[in-house]
Amino acid sequence: MIKTPEEITKIRKAGKILATVAKVVLARAEQGKTLRSLDKLAEELINNAGGEPAFLGYQPHGARRPYPNSICTSVNDVVVHGTPDNYRLKSGDVLKLDFGVIYDGWYADAAWTAGIGGITARAQKLIKVTEKALFAGIKQAKPGNHLGDIGWAINSEVSGHGFKVVDGLTGHGVGRQLHEEPSVFNEGERGRGILLKPGMVLAIEPMVSAGTAKIVQNRDDSFAIADGSLSAHFEHTIAIKDGGAEILTII
Ligand code: MG
Q1: How far apart are the CA of 250 and the centre of ligand 1, in A?
Q2: How far does residue 160's CA lie from ligand 1's centre (Å)?
Q3: Structural domain total, the chain
Q4: 236 alpha carbon to ligand 1 midpoint, in Å?
Q5: Which domain holds residue 44?
Q6: CA of 110 to the centre of ligand 1 (A)
Q7: Which residues of 182-215 are buried (b: 16+ CB within 10 A; e: fewer)?
Q8: What's the gap in Å between 133 CA and the centre of ligand 1?
Q9: How big is the chain by its Cα radius of gyration, in Å?
Q10: pLDDT tens, position by position, for the chain (251 residues)?
């Protein structure tokens, strides 16, 4: 679970490629664009930068097939694992962009949520609170704290604004593989769970619903909020260091 400084250097490189590509893709995510065109763009940019798309061909536990694309694009009530198809983005959509990059065998993973065109005040608040929750969690990712402190901070931020972290989906360790131990829950108790140590690399990722916390799995393996409510998702890969967390996927 502990990575050496040399290993973290490689994850940092993967994270840098990821963030650079995400910035371009998010800027291009606008009304009239298809999700598929964003996937093609991301794949090309990742490959040109010397990375590999980590999601392409990946089959997480419980998925019905290996993942056919380089990015996940989840719109509105779909919270994660949305497949980039020919859907055209329209004003009012809430888009979640989530993808991973491999560099020299090392993985980074991150996600962002963007409003397309004009979005409602409630959607804006959901996005802002979810991003704040991510940074509240990251702030707790320091030596001497426990894993539960991260989830506690995330859930406090989310529930304090009347939203809910979704059931059954968590962050994770990341590095040699896309998903490693431990699971990083988006709720928890202060001082509970494993002790955090320098060299741990975690993907922290609040997934938040404006309605029920319950999710359903769609036919394409994506997960959507069970009552059709809007959802948001932010994620960073971070390394725990003596002074606190270094964000390896910051844009
Ligand atoms: Mg992740």
Answers
A1: 15
A2: 24
A3: 1
A4: 8
A5: 5-247
A6: 6
A7: bebbbbbeeeebeebeebbbbbbbbbbbbeebeb
A8: 15
A9: 17
A10: 899 999 999 999 999 999 999 999 999 999 999 999 999 999 999 999 999 999 999 987 778 889 999 999 999 999 999 999 999 999 999 999 999 999 999 999 999 999 999 999 999 999 999 999 999 999 999 999 999 999 999 999 999 999 999 999 999 999 999 999 999 999 999 999 999 999 999 999 999 999 999 999 999 899 999 999 999 999 999 999 999 999 999 98
Structure tokens at 35: 């999700």
Q: The domain that contains 71 carries what CATH number?
A: 3.90.230.10
Tell me, in angstroms, the distance from the centre of ligand 1 to residue 175's CA.
11
Considering the entire predicted model, what is its pTM? Answer: 0.97
For residues 225 and 191, give the distance between their C-alpha atoms in angstroms, rounded to a whole number: 30
C-alpha–C-alpha distance, residues 93 and 30, integer Å? 10
Distance from Cα 171 to the centre of ligand 1, integer Å: 6
160, two tokens? 């304090």
- Tell me how far the alpha carbon of residue 67 lies from the centroid of ligand 1, in angstroms: 14
What gap in Å lies between CA 123 and CA 48, rounded to an integer? 34
Measure 202 CA to ligand 1 centroid, in angstroms: 9
Rounded to the nearest angstrom, the distance between the alpha carbon of 40 and the centre of ligand 1 is 20
